[in-house]
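Long-time lurker, first post.

We've been arguing in lab meeting about whether zinc ion would sit comfortably in this protein at all. Half the group thinks yes, half thinks no, and nobody has a model to point at. So I'm putting the question to the forum: if I give you the sequence and the SMILES, can you give me back a predicted structure of the complex? Inputs are below. Any interpretation is welcome too.
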Amino acid sequence: MIKKNKALSKNQKLVLDFIQRNKKPVKAYSILSSVQKKGIKAPPQVYRALDKLIEMGKIHRIESQNSFVACNTSECETPHATAFSICSDCDKVSEINDSKLFKFLLDFRDNNGVKFAGYNLEFFGVCKSCEQIQKV
Ligand SMILES: [Zn+2]
Ligand SMILES: [Zn+2]
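Top reply:
Settle the argument with this. Predicted structure of the protein with zinc ion, as tokens:
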């Protein structure tokens, strides 16, 4: 098991802080411009911090948006197995925490019988509040 409460470096803390303060996923360039004001000048430093935070399960990458979001479960043990629902209207992203789905994926094999160590799923649809707006 990965130890989660390992001390974060100063850069990692700054980056994580910024991502956690945002309700929506943030793009790399907005992370960059925010932390530059706080002294991280070089983009590679930011990308390294992002990689580490993903590895630790503190944040996740939303591939389709190329953005980053804070993990909303403090116990996320699965940095390489994530699932998100994404609203195609307002871009709201929620982390999916469905034990049935995870159990299914854990045993999932493809047609050649290959088992997989990770996945990065994104489900697209219209969120509840956008659905309500459309009905009015
Ligand atoms: Zn998570
Ligand atoms: Zn929406």
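For your lab meeting: Helices lie at 10-21, 28-36, 43-55, 99-107, 128-135. The domain at 10-135 is CATH 1.10.10.10 (Arc Repressor Mutant, subunit A). Whichever side wins, do check it experimentally.
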